[in-house]
Design brief:
The complex is a heterodimer.
Chain A (H helix, E strand, L loop, with lengths): L2 H27 L11 H13 L1 H34 L1 H14 L8 H8 L3 H25 L3 H9 L4 H38 L5 H10 L3 H29 L7
Helix pairs in contact in A: 2-10, 3-4, 3-6, 3-8, 3-9, 5-6, 6-8, 7-8, 8-9, 8-10, 9-10
Chain B lengths: L1 E11 L5 E12 L4 E5 L6 H9 L6 E6 L2 E2 L7 E5 L10 H11 L4 H14 L15 H13 L5 E5 L7 H18 L2 E6 L2 H7 L2 E5 L6 E6 L8 H4 L3 H17 L4
Parallel strand pairs in B: 3-8, 3-9, 6-7, 7-8
Antiparallel strand pairs in B: 1-2, 1-4, 4-5, 9-10
């Protein structure tokens, strides 16, 4: 895509966001919602600019980011490893398939109370929850990608002298990269949601906690700041992942 | 020398019925011969090639290369597939270098050899392109170079020009013959085009429709190097074509 096309796409993409903010402003301006409960966007954004400079708020962001990264990274490593193993080894697949079928549809947030009791209120419970939730989309995407690798790619590599045990890393993994990265993208979005959710339920810090605390004390402006912050965090992380993706998949037709 | 002794291949269909794809095939291919396997679609001609490649184990019978039973793929037999099967994550140079690197050749030397091969197949200047950026004919040139790069004694070509337009196909046939004239590797070439088989081969193995059996082996006694424009006017060439097309019509009834 050329520069002009990217710019025009970006401008088009801004339209719904601008409309949303306009709607928000309209709700406040025309008195559909009391200003104390729904503050105008301008007020929220200026408060946010102020908060982003404060150390306390930065620490909340750091706590959330750390949990998000830790959980997402563990989920990626586990998901890719298990997905690949299941795709190439029928015995592993026989073990993994039933457990994935049972656990994948389970609302992982239901495990959170148990996690809190088991590992406490600190980072671990949030990281584990993020891991559980992000794991399945990555695992399933990896499994799907690795089990649909074109047979003739594998044959070509074997004929060139690649021993069977190296086929996994030299052919299957790179060939499955588009699927794996799609799984990671979904996993990342889920991670953003889940880390925030976990912090809202029970936490002593983090963006989710900041939101709940503000809501409980009717500080409407402070309630909206973490909300917008987490969506910006999501936007930035997704953008970074997209950069990694387009670099890694530069040879693939669909990327 | 390649010996195929009483090879039969049975596949299980999705309805769990046995389907006899190849029935009792015996064939000997001399070193340096260009042999085409010609038959209607579904006659198992590709399967026969895969058995020689070691990609598929025959249900009955055995294939031997230089007196040794074929038990798996090896760099002495290089495949070229209709689908190209290039590694999408590697550049043209990366694809061609894959084989030599797998053979333990040092990077610099592998690169030099590969660059020479890329030039030989007429793609100088495209070394850093990715397969997705190339036309079908160019992709197949890369695939041929990738296979030639690890110096197989036998080329196994599975309808390599089947996905190309008529003009590109003709050019690639000429280029393949030119390359073949230099070192006269053994070539096993699967095709459903009578003209292609006669133009290229020393020997054409005609197969019957399912189950695939050898119907006739026709020696093509035409002078080499072959020039397409000369051959088209040659009554002997025309006679081969007509003769084989007639057989083809008999065996391909209903197609």
């Amino acid at each position: 895509m050329n520069g002009r096309a990217i710019t025009s796409d970006l401008l088009l993409g801004m339209i719904p966001i601008v409309l949303l903010v306009a709607l928000w402003q309209a709700l406040v301006s025309f008195g559909y919602a009391p200003v104390t409960l729904l503050p105008p966007p301008g007020q929220v954004f200026s408060r946010m600019a102020q908060q982003l400079l404060s150390t306390t708020f930065q620490q909340e962001i750091a706590a959330t980011l750390f949990r998000l990264f830790a959980g997402f990274s563990i989920a990626t490593v586990l998901g890719v490893t298990i997905g690949l193993a299941a795709a190439v080894n029928p015995a592993v697949n026989a073990v993994v398939r039933p457990i994935v079928r049972v656990l994948a549809p389970l609302p992982k947030v239901a495990l959170y109370p148990a996690l809190l009791l088991l590992v406490g209120f600190g980072h671990q419970s949030k990281i584990l929850l993020v891991t559980f939730d992000a794991l399945f989309p990555i695992l399933l995407a990896t499994y799907y990608g690795a089990s649909t690798v074109e047979q003739k790619l594998i044959w070509s590599a074997m004929a060139a002298g690649t021993p069977p045990r190296e086929i996994l890393f030299k052919v299957v993994l790179p060939a499955a990269a588009p699927s794996i990265l799609t799984g990671c993208r979904i996993g990342l979005v889920i991670s953003c949601i889940v880390v925030f959710l976990a912090e809202m339920i029970t936490s002593t810090d983090g963006l989710g906690h900041a939101l709940v605390t503000a809501a409980r004390t009717f500080q409407a402006v402070d309630m909206f700041v973490p909300l917008i912050t987490i969506s910006l965090v999501g936007l930035i992380l997704n953008g970074l992942l997209e950069l990694v993706r387009s670099y890694l998949l530069r040879g693939f037709p669909e990327a | 020398m390649i010996e195929i002794n009483q090879v039969s291949q049975v596949f299980q269909t999705s309805a769990r019925q046995d389907h006899l794809a190849l029935s009792d095939i015996s064939l000997t291919i001399q070193d340096g011969a260009f042999v085409s396997i010609l038959g209607p679609s579904g006659c198992g001609k590709s399967t026969l090639l895969y058995i020689v490649g070691g990609f598929v184990r025959p249900t009955r019978g055995a294939a031997k290369m230089k007196g040794r039973a074929i038990t798996g793929p090896g760099p002495d037999r290089g495949p070229v597939f209709q689908e190209f099967a290039l590694f999408p994550w590697k550049s043209v140079l990366g694809n061609v270098m894959y084989g030599p690197r797998q053979q333990g050749i040092k990077h610099a030397e592998a690169e030099a050899q590969s660059r020479a091969l890329i030039e030989m197949v007429g793609l100088k200047g495209f070394e850093d392109f990715y397969p997705k950026e190339l036309s079908g004919g160019m992709k197949q040139r890369v695939a041929l170079a990738r296979t030639l790069a690890y110096h197989p004694e036998v080329l196994l070509m599975d309808e390599p020009f089947g996905a190309l337009d008529a003009h590109t196909r003709t050019r690639l046939q000429n280029d393949l013959l030119n390359i073949w004239e230099r070192d006269r590797k053994t070539v096993l070439f699967v095709t459903h085009s009578v003209e292609e088989a006669v133009f290229l081969s020393d020997k054409v193995v005609m197969m019957t429709r399912s189950p695939g059996r050898i119907r006739e082996i026709i020696e093509i006694d035409l002078p080499r190097p072959r020039r397409r424009t000369e051959l088209l006017l040659d009554p002997r060439y025309q006679k081969y074509i007509v003769e084989i097309e007639r057989m083809f019509d008999d065996s391909g009834e209903g197609e």
